[in-house]
Fold:
Amino acid sequence: MLLGEKSDKIFLFIHGLNGDGSGAIRFSKVAEKFGWQVYGITLPRDEIRPEILIPKLQSTMEFLESQWKTISIRANSFGAWLSLISFRDKTFDRCLFVSPLLNMENFILNLMKLESISEEDLKREGEIDSKFGVRLSWKYLEFVRKNPVRSISSKTRILHCSGDEVIPLDESKNFAMKNSCELEIIDGGEHWFHTDNQLKLLEIWESKNLEE
Structure:
């Protein structure tokens, strides 16, 4: 989904789990004011394995690189981790991450703890469906451990709410410290930006990091 007036610079927008194209549409209305186009990619909800999603993102990036001079990333939650894994050998103009999932290993291990699933259980079964709608996979956990994330832009900016019930704030703090990223924390709030006030604060943050 290509949005905005023709430009030589573009953002790839990657939504989080259970997201859709509405986030890219909203963001494009902000980005266009600063001369950016936006390309929104829709991830399949029923298939989130790296071996499926990474090639999809990489082929999209090849297309963007053939058409645009300057490329940046705007991603939410799971989309942030996915971009860091998919484009680990590339460098972008800037990356804007909102409520980013930056430590997938901890995320998986926490789900396993909530389900009382041990690593031995998961290794033996291979895959186990959780009550949270996420299929836990031993192969996935091994992949995550072999592929730690790092920043892919010197201008990586992170927005995190202190009331995020999904992603611990300390994970954004640790990633920002190790990768020299700028981290802005909104007091209160949630993992998902959806109220009028939250969306207003989100737009202010985006605009501030687009006008540079």
